[in-house]
Amino acid sequence: MCNLEKYDEIFVDVFSIEEKNLNENIVRGAVKDWDSLGHVKLITTIEDVFNIMFDTEDILEFDSYDKGKEILKKYNITV
């Protein structure tokens, strides 16, 4: 499974979003389950799957599907 597939699967699992709906419109506040608990689940799942540890600043800035892709590049993970 490639990194994009892993990344997409995390969003599908954490937020119950259909994969075909994953796009730049997936932002915190617009997704029903993306509240503080959903955010923690998203972050910890990504950290586990990609074997990384986000900096606090990155956790706070991770507010959209696309922003997450940008942040992962800082950890040498291309999605």
UniProtKB/TrEMBL annotation:
InterPro entries: ACP-like_sf (IPR036736). It comes from the Bacteria. It comes from Parablautia muri. This is Acyl carrier protein.
